[in-house]
Amino acid sequence: MEHNNQEQPYIEPDKTTETTPVKTTKSETWEWIKALVIAGVLVIIIRWFLFSPFIVDGDSMRPNFFTGERLIVNKIVYDIRAPKRGEVIVFHAPEGKDYIKRVIALPGETVKVTGDKVFINGQEIDQPYIKDAIEQAKKEGHAYNTLSDFQEKKVPDGEIFAMGDNRGNSKDSRAIGFIPYNKIVGRAEVIFWPVSKISFIHF
């Protein structure tokens, strides 16, 4: 009887049939939950610590800002540096409301308002943000600022003097006094509503 002593050839297993583990529905759900939590935390940080929305209420900043417009307020810029003249700020007013006004005079400066003219340290300053409004009022035969003058005073340390652009209809530092730094919410950066007026706020 013959015996077949020939060895059988070695056949390497087909690795293409191996499968990789697939994420279960449970793990995918957990990944979504983590992503949503992280997004929520970022929104809270941005909302409460970096930027905040503000709705303009009233005519005190016309002709540059109007009732119902929505702004983005930068809440950290004044943690880095002090306010500058011409910047538009939001601050906590004495009656518990938030006001929007423009920085006019800085700590240590003297400020005086005479009609449409504003003097800082005895020198009249340019007011490009209301130049056209002042010119239009002159053509109509009256002053743009119809409120009483503000007698010269020195701005205390750590405070600013602010006024609304609508000089004849604004309750500002002329009535409520100087604004302490710790009452300033931040600087208005962007108009984001209505859509037709989306723009950065220039100073």
Explain how this protein is built.
- With 203 residues, this protein is α+β, with helices and mostly antiparallel strands.
- 21% of the residues lie in helices and 29% in strands.
- The strands form two sheets. Strands 1, 2, 3, 4, 9, 10, 11 and 12 form an eight-stranded antiparallel β-sheet that branches. It has a four-stranded antiparallel β-sheet with strand order 7-6-5-8, with no helix packed on it.
- A hairpin with a 2-residue loop joins strand 5 and strand 6.
- Mean pLDDT is 87; it is low at 16-21.
Q: What's this model, at a glance?
A:
It catalyses: Cleavage of hydrophobic, N-terminal signal or leader sequences from secreted and periplasmic proteins. By secondary structure, the chain is α+β, with helices and mostly antiparallel strands.
List the main descriptive attributes of the protein structure presented here.
Signal peptidase I; 12 strands; four-stranded antiparallel beta sheet; 4 helices; single chain; 203 residues; 21% helix; signal peptidase activity; alpha+beta; transmembrane; transmembrane helix; EC 3.4.21.89; eight-stranded antiparallel beta sheet; Umud Fragment, subunit A
Span of the ends, CA to CA: 108 Å
* Class inferred from helices and paired strands: alpha+beta
Low-confidence stretches: 16-21
CATH superfamily caption: Umud Fragment, subunit A
What does the average pLDDT come to? 87
Question: According to CATH, what is the topology?
Answer: Umud Fragment, subunit A
Order of helices and strands: HEEHEEEEEHEEHEEE
Number of strands: 12
**SS element count, helices:** 4
Overall body shape: elongated
Membrane topology: Single-pass type II membrane protein
Catalytic activity: Cleavage of hydrophobic, N-terminal signal or leader sequences from secreted and periplasmic proteins
Family: Belongs to the peptidase S26 family.
Subcellular location: Cell membrane; Membrane
